[in-house]
Specification:
By secondary structure, the chain is mainly alpha-helical. The chain has helices at 29-56, 63-91, 99-132, 137-140, 143-168, 186-190, 198-231, 236-264, 273-297, 300-317, and strands spanning 4-6, 12-14, 16-19, 96-98, 178-179. Strands 4-3-5 form a 3-stranded mixed sheet. The protein has a two-stranded antiparallel sheet with strand order 1-2. Helix 3 runs antiparallel to helix 8. It starts with a strand and ends with a helix. Pfam families: 7tm_4. The chain crosses the membrane at residues 32-56, 68-92, 104-125, 145-163, 202-231, 243-265, 277-297.
């Protein structure tokens, strides 16, 4: 049970949360630890590899790949917020987390989650400019514009996360302190609030719709123009080449926004903790792994740059 203290009116306030996590699966804890640790190491290694390749290979010094490097860095930090803590809890009996620690974890998780949505939207816009306005691409996506767009992405994610976190932690908690999750996510923490959380839940729901649905609609709009431009290309080889530059991004978009919609675009979010935990495993453990895998396997320029970098490092070592 989470530690509590009594207020003057007889209400017991929670001073510490207990993350339920995978405590209902004690016989699988060692297996889950090994599986999640391996996935985490591969994810971090893959994303760091992408960042390194883009940094050292001059042919990838374009807005598209710079945005990809920022996305890889964001995904790495995203996993760092939740997975190490989850791994520690799989090994230890105690799964307690202080309220301040919970607040910090939720804030950074929301910042990085929102940033990923906005970055994918920005990458969709980059593909739109590259395919629909190729002659003006270097002017439209010049470094100062890219820097301003990147700053706007970070500030937007920071603002949304700050608002949602303040809304959730604006009142004390007094309903047992058991968080039905393996990290401090919105719905399971909000359910423990002493005050009526219906209005706050509705406000957070609309903010989530604004971030997830608005970002996704902007991406769809970009791809509507992209598809129209590709269909006007006469040669089949040209159409394939144009679409291949978007395939990896589209794959990541579908997976990322699909998981986000299942969790955050439901008014009854948190009503089924077991299902939410299963989906959360996918978008906190599996989805970040897809970024390096998809962009390495489905992007020819990244594959070529990786081979070139490996060959260069092999030659230096000899």
């Amino acid at each position: 049970m989470a530690p509590e203290k009594q207020r003057g009116n007889g209400t017991w306030l929670v001073t510490e949360f207990v993350l339920v996590g995978f405590s209902n699966l004690p016989h699988l804890r060692t297996t889950l630890f090994a599986l999640f640790l391996l996935t985490y190491l591969v994810t971090v290694s893959g994303n760091v590899t992408i960042i390194t390749i883009i940094h050292v290979d001059r042919t990838l010094h374009t807005p598209m790949y710079r945005f990809l490097a920022v996305l890889s860095l964001s995904e790495t930090c995203y996993t760092l917020v939740t997975i190490p803590n989850m791994l520690a809890h799989l090994l230890m009996e105690s799964q307690a987390i202080s309220i301040s620690g919970c607040r910090a974890q939720m804030f950074f998780f929301l910042v990085l989650g929102c940033n990923n949505c906005f970055l994918l939207t920005l990458m969709g816009y980059d593909r739109y400019v590259a395919i629909c306005h190729p002659l003006r691409y270097s002017v439209i996506m010049r470094p100062t514009v890219c820097l301003c767009l990147g700053t706007l992405v970070f500030c937007s994610g920071f603002s949304v996360a700050l608002i949602e976190t303040c809304m959730i932690f604006s009142s004390p908690f007094c309903r047992g302190g058991r968080v039905e999750h393996f990290f401090c996510d919105i719905a399971p923490v909000l359910q423990l609030s002493c005050a009526d959380s219906a209005q706050r839940a509705l406000g957070i729901f609309f903010l989530s719709v604004l971030v997830v649905l608005f970002s996704f609609l902007l991406i769809l709009l970009s791809y509507a123009f992209i598809v129209a431009a590709i269909l006007r290309i006469r040669s089949a080889a040209g159409r394939r080449r144009a679409f291949s530059t978007c395939a990896a991004h589209l794959t990541v978009v579908v997976v990322h926004f699909g998981c986000a919609s299942i969790i955050y675009l439901r008014p009854d979010s948190g009503a089924n903790p077991a299902r939410d935990r299963l989906v959360a495993v996918f978008y906190t453990v599996v989805t970040p792994l897809l970024n390096p895998v998809v962009y390495t396997l489905r992007n020819k320029e990244v594959r070529v740059a990786l081979k070139r970098t490996l060959a260069r490092s092999g030659g230096v070592s000899r």
